[in-house]
Amino acid sequence: MNEITASAATPSRDAVARHDFAAAEPRWQAEWDRRGCFAVPDVPPEGSSKYYVLEMFPYPSGKIHMGHVRNYTLGDVVARYKRARGHLVLHPMGWDAFGLPAENAARERGVHPAKWTYDNIANMRAELKRMGLSLDWSREFATCDVEYYGRQQKLFLDFWKAGLVERKESWVNWDPVDGTVLANEQVIDGRGWRSGALVEKKKLSQWFLSITKYAPDLLQALDGLDRWPERVKLMQANWIGRSEGARVRFPLAEPVAGMAEVEVFTTRPDTLFGMSFLAVAAEHPLAAAAAARDPRAAEFVAECRRMGTSEAAIEQAEKRGFDTGLRVAHPFLKGVTFPVWIANFVLMEYGTGAIFGCPGHDERDHEFASKYGLAIRPVVLPPGGDPAGFSVADAAYTDDGTIFNSGFLDGLAVPAAKRRAIEALEAKGQGTGVVNWRLRDWGVSRQRYWGCPIPVIHCEACGAVPVPDDQLPVKLPEDVDFSKPGNPLDHHPGWKHVACPSCGRAARRETDTCDTFVDSSWYFARFCSPRAAEPVTGAAVDAWLPVDQYIGGIEHAILHLLYSRFFTRAMAATGHLKLAEPFAGLFTQGMVQHESYKGADGRWLYPEEVEFSVEGDGTRSAVVKGGNEPVTIGRVEAMSKSKRNTVDPGAIIGRYGADTARWFILSDNPPERDMEWTESGVAGAFRFTQRVWRLAANALPALAPAGAPMPAAAGPARKLRQVTHRTIAAVTEALESFAFNVAVARIHEFANAIAEMEAQAAAEGMGAARREALEMLARLSAPMMPHLAEEVYALLNPGADRLVAQLPWPEPEAELLRVEAVTLAVQVLGKLRATIEVPAGTAEAEIFALAEADENVQRALGGKPIKKRIHVPGRVVNFVV
Ligand code: ANZ
Ligand code: ZN
Fold first, then answer.
1. C-alpha span between 357 and 405 (Å, rounded)
2. Which DSSP symbol is given to 42?
3. Å from CA of 267 to ligand 1 middle
4. pTM as predicted
5. By CB neighbour count within 10 A (0-12 exposed, 13-18 middle, 19+ buried), where does 21 fall?
6. Fewest CB atoms within 10 Å of the CB: 221, 341, 546, 550?
7. Which chain residues have CB less than 5 Å from ligand 2, an ion?
8. Mean pLDDT on 202-209
9. What's the confidence (pLDDT) of residue 719?
């Protein structure tokens, strides 16, 4: 078994002068494949140590970009390293394949979304394969495969049974032209991002996943994620947004439309005496009541509906309001009432959709009160402040302090005043202390074709009925018409008309499909047994999950990761999984950047359209290739299609090979930081691949046979062995800590050291030491440059039965790591006078004696008595006289 083929193991001898990557890379890829180096079983055998490394799967947009190259190279380094360390590594790949671009392609170019998507996948799969990633391709799937989304429908129904799915009415952004709901991000200046139509706020019945049920746990469990970046945990915590406060009920001076009171949510019940108004959201029932009585109120409400609705948009928009003329009574001040406003900065979806305004101590309220001439009454005094002179004219005071102007709360610190105010409200039956969460339930309904159909049938008699198991999967119809606006599933002639599974009467299929974030919330679990009949197989997920190392972009720090954490919990609640946290380790990579270029008329230019020249003083200038139109060299920024500062990975790999692209993308900066892609950088990486090849090829005739005894005596050969083993230790440490750029730097130094030793090729034992060094050069580079590593290793070991991809990670010999001598700087009064070399482990007293005995030191001391001796081990000795 696993016999080696001559073609794979023995690079052509003619190629000694140059590493022929174009021939070598596909050859090694085929060989890894043939030997099944990266395939793992669904259930790891007893006693194996599993490691699951996963990169966020790509959206099949058509071509891979440099962000993918960086992401998948990082993951591949981890996978190859962990495999060499003896782990059974699960490293799969798939496609996050549903989504709007496929539908846009259908509308704009008449190509079916399925064809567009699967063609793109074929293209991108080929590109990824050229990168030489150590993936188990047998596990590949796309979320638009019915084998995947059918199982997702099963999960949806299981969640429903477990009380984790709800159908509720909610306010949505409705694009009347496209006939669809828009996400907040898709509303730009109040208009639909595609249609440009004025967006309406509309109440719609939608499907929701009950993520809020897990809000406390999702927050608390962040503490246990010790291999996640702090930044990501903080973003999640803010998104979940736990705040402690109170709900306070304000009686209306006179009841309206059957309402006698308004309830607000506040985190600052301590500031109740600083109240000057109450405000409700435009969608609040009280606003509706006011609108029914007053056309101007109705006009204001309508205007608010047309506004951009994202929280960020509201935060930035000018604060605007309308005084309804209604008034509420203060809970503690007898006979005092305040006006009720409708305000655009109050969100219906948060708290109760109503607030009490305290302009002295809240920024938004301050801005609002200043604009409308409402009272500003300070009630929190900063530490050391003067109650008579303190005012909040320019800005609200939002920090801690002592309460004043506040009756029974006077003199209390803010936290104590909060508790006291809540007690008083509870005693009067006008409020309660509560914990509020910013997190909302997850609305998953989308009025689109290219998504996972929500497996529900609506019956006039029975209501919403789950699609029975034996009718799953609910397949997307293929014959769809994109010429009309709106959801093609909705105006498909036949698809939605079905019999009610419960009473048999004519009923209607749900035509909403799932938010694509649902698809990406459990794919990591499906990878464990991708062909299973059930969504997941217990034995597979129990063994493989959690993902040990997840790698992806920071743009997914909130939604994708939070949804996946929720899904894992929901799948545990429905018996599919046994764990809560899907990703034990998370790494977020930086972006790939490039200079940007503009032509004389300001149009963006691709890097390959530009020709550079360097002046005598080193300044660079550029013109458009093949002419003399001047080019402005712009900032280095994230690669983007709109600025055309992109470089096509396919072209780079074609020109320099995959190893070069991988090596360069790892070399420049720590992986968590942004890195700049430069032509000179790639060219340098390419030269390095050739250099490694030449070092090995040139040394070949002088090397001892494999297995020859290693030199023991001191001398150049032993020195080389020390360098080799120190490099093994250093590269290992760098790979363990994700410092891949450091690993690259150490390997560069190692190559330099090997080259410097070429002059001493004839020294005793050098044949064996050099063989070892070159083999290690190959093996240590293998996670980063896997093809070159195989090529060099095979050159050194023709006919070897194992590939580098199958070899264990090298261990350094402790004896060769030992530091034998230490060089110390010797100072007198802080001034360098000599350097001495002492054997490692020399006692301090002896070090002082040796330092003092040095001729130059003696001269500097000039016979004066030494007052103080200082020794910084390994670095410096200083004498004070
Ligand atoms: C009175 C008050 C006085 C407030 C004060 C703050 C400072 P977090 O921490 O994010 O939970 N608020 C409550 N519901 C709101 C809504 N639906 N839309 C807009 N704002 C709302 O914020 C809670 C605070 O945000 C609440 O506390 C409330 O204003 C406001 F000196 O109540 B506060
Ligand atoms: Zn029915």
1. 16
2. S
3. 6
4. 0.86
5. buried
6. 221
7. 459, 461-462, 500, 502-503
8. 92
9. 93
